[in-house]
Design goal:
- The protein is α/β, with parallel strands linked by helices and 395 residues long.
- It has two domains: 13-364, Rossmann fold; 367-395, no CATH class.
- The chain is built from eleven helices and twelve strands.
- The strands form four sheets. The protein has a six-stranded mixed sheet, with helices on both faces. A two-stranded antiparallel ribbon has the order 1-3.
- Strand 5 (196-201), helix 6 (208-219) and strand 6 form a beta-alpha-beta unit.
- It binds thiamine diphosphate and magnesium ion.
- Thiamine diphosphate (TPP) binds at residues 123, 171-173, 201-204, 231, 233-235, 297.
Length: 395
């Protein structure tokens, strides 16, 4: 599915406002808004476990490629801006950035619809955008303002957008996995023709709850797709130090799995389309997305003490997801370098405007401290740890 929040956009991008092309492009062999099928080979073949892998030949269009470029550029800019706001102390607390991993969120969204559910860990800003969230909601939430997607009370790790099928935003490593399988249970119970994508990291892949949840998902043939975003580090620990087998796609044993180049948005789209069809018919499957985060684990981690600068710049040069799409767009003569640069400028402008708006948003009122914590009317009592302090009954 092409992202469609701003369906009027030339490129079908959900994230950038319509970008108007210069007249020059209309004389090119492929118009950037063309919806004619283009056939492209994925970067590397899929590796599979207990299943036939999908074809490496992917169908796309000029319009879809342009929307991928737009969306990933916007996300990259948003994350860089969040880094600056954090350093300026306008964002406080935890903040985990997703730059480098954009193709996973964008490729997945291209294969599913908003009735499919997505749930992830704390590296959640870009997934929220994909699910229909806005930049103003992102920056307001990051800065603890009322207009944030969690009313300024969740912060970076707790983005949420139920109306777009996005169930967060979870700070406890691995805790979202049983929740995601629960969502898939709901879909099967209600006979919905939809699936749940549960994302977790390579670090989380070593947790017991993954295997417990997978067991039930397989036993009951739930439409649960477990997506291991393997960025090769869990905080400062490299995968080889924490995982006996880093072949995460195989670790479901009885559940089929697929290893995917998570830096290739078209490979991600192909794999997610395959996974959705498989899960609706046969139950759970694991997708391992081979990806990379450019930033450190969180803002307190410079990200350069446990890996070399050469490693990071090597990935940027060889595997960057945005550069891959840029090359494809240029090779197919869909757009020019200048036009792609203009899109990057436009993304910068939109991010700046959203930050300015978010700064105008107020902080939540102190009277809202306990709202949206417990269901209303339960009469829940809150008290201090030693139970001697003043008790309050929450609304
Ligand atoms: C249960 C639990 N244990 C430890 C932590 C601290 N912690 C936060 S993130 C993290 C690493 C997780 O790495 P990974 O799953 O690979 O995800 P990534 O950050 O790479 O996206 C750890 C250990 C936590 N939040 N929750
Ligand atoms: Mg990781």
């Amino acid at each position: 599915m092409a992202l469609s929040r701003f369906s009027s956009s030339q490129f079908g991008s959900t994230l950038l406002k319509p970008y108007f092309l210069s007249s020059a492009i209309r004389h090119r062999s492929i118009s950037s808004s063309s919806t004619e099928t283009l056939t492209v080979e994925t970067s590397i073949p899929f590796t599979s476990h207990n299943c036939e892998p999908p074809s490496t030949t992917v169908q796309t269009t000029a319009s879809e490629l342009m929307s991928f470029f737009n969306d990933m550029v916007l996300m990259r800019r948003m994350e860089i801006a969040a880094d600056s706001l954090y350093k300026a102390k306008l964002i406080r607390g935890f903040c985990h950035l997703y730059d480098g991993q954009e193709a996973v969120a964008v490729g997945m969204e291209a294969a599913i619809n908003r009735k499919d559910c997505v749930i992830t860990a704390y590296r959640d800003h870009c997934t929220f955008l994909c699910r229909g969230g806005t930049l103003v909601e992102v920056f307001s939430e990051l800065m603890g303002r009322k207009d944030g997607c969690s009313k300024g009370k969740g912060g970076s790790m707790h983005f949420y957008r139920k109306e777009g099928g996005f169930y967060g935003g979870h700070g406890i490593v691995g805790a979202q996995i049983p929740l995601g399988v629960g969502l898939a249970f709901g879909q099967k119970y209600n006979k919905d023709p939809n699936v749940t994508f549960t994302l977790y990291g390579d670090g989380a892949a070593n947790q017991g709850q993954l295997f417990e949840a997978l067991n039930i998902a397989a036993l009951w043939d739930l439409p649960a797709i477990l997506v291991c975003e393997n960025n090769h580090y869990g905080m400062g620990t490299a995968e080889w130090r924490s995982a006996k087998s880093p072949a995460y796609y195989k670790r479901g044993d009885y559940a089929p799995g697929l290893k995917v180049d998570g830096m290739d948005v078209l490979a991600v789209k192909q794999a997610c389309k395959f996974a959705k069809e498989h899960a609706l018919k046969n139950g759970p499957l694991i997708l391992e997305m081979d990806t990379y985060r450019y930033h450190g684990h969180s803002m307190s981690d410079p990200g350069s003490t446990y890996r070399t600068r050469d490693e990071i710049s090597g990935v940027r040069q060889e595997r960057d997801p945005i550069e891959r799409v840029r090359k494809l767009v240029l090779a197919h003569d869909i757009s020019t370098e200048k036009e792609l640069k203009d899109i990057e400028k436009e993304a910068r402008k939109q991010v700046d405007e959203a930050i300015a708006k978010a700064k105008e948003s107020q902080m939540p009122d102190p009277s809202d401290l306990f709202t949206n914590v417990y269901v209303k009317g339960l009469g829940v009592e809150a008290c201090g740890a030693d139970r001697k302090e003043v008790k309050a009954t929450l609304p």
